[in-house]
Amino acid sequence: MPLVRIDLPDTTSDEECSAISQLVHQALVDTFNVPMPDRFQILTRRTPHELICSEEFLGVRHSAHVAFIQIFCAPGRSLEMKKALFSETARQASSQCSFSAADVIINLVETPRENWSFGNGLMQYSP
Fold first, then answer.
1. pTM for this one?
2. I need a surface site. Which of 4, 34, 69, 83 has the fewest CB within 10 A?
3. Rounded CA gap, 114 and 109, in Å?
4. Cα–chain center distance at 13
């Protein structure tokens, strides 16, 4: 049930948008045990003035070609699973797309299952 927001430079091609969308989902399937059909994503291409990223932070150098990935999901994954997700996503983005691993910035937001509705105004995970 993750909801994924991916913000990319406006110069990102349709093919690369599709590739990063797929690789993020595959990383969730492989590391978080998300079912393959459980795919909810928002992809947005942003102008250079809409993607602000420090040139260097915590010893990591960033370019202007940065991908911001925010993943909203239910709590319960171990630290090892989270590390695997981050690592696999950055690795795949750098091997399949034009993004360097250093330019893949990921934020994981855990929210209780009761805070989700997947349609019809219902709280599907609420008792």
1. 0.91
2. 83
3. 15
4. 18
The gap from C-alpha 108 to its chain's centroid, in whole angstroms, comes to: 8
Separation between Cα atoms, residue 81 and residue 90, nearest integer Å? 14
pLDDT of residue 113: 85
Give mean pLDDT, residues 80-85. Answer: 98
The whole-angstrom separation of Cα 1 and Cα 14 is: 25
Helix segments in the chain, DSSP class H: 14-32, 79-96
DSSP category for residue 119: S
Structure tokens at 2: 């993750």
Contact 54, 62 (CB under 8 A): yes
On the CB side of 73, CA atoms within 13 Å amount to 24
Residue 53 CB burial class (10 angstroms; 0-12, 13-18, ≥19): middle
Of the candidates 53, 25, 51, 50, the one whose C-alpha atom is nearest the C-alpha of residue 39 is: 25
Rounded Cα gap, residues 102 and 17, in angstroms? 18
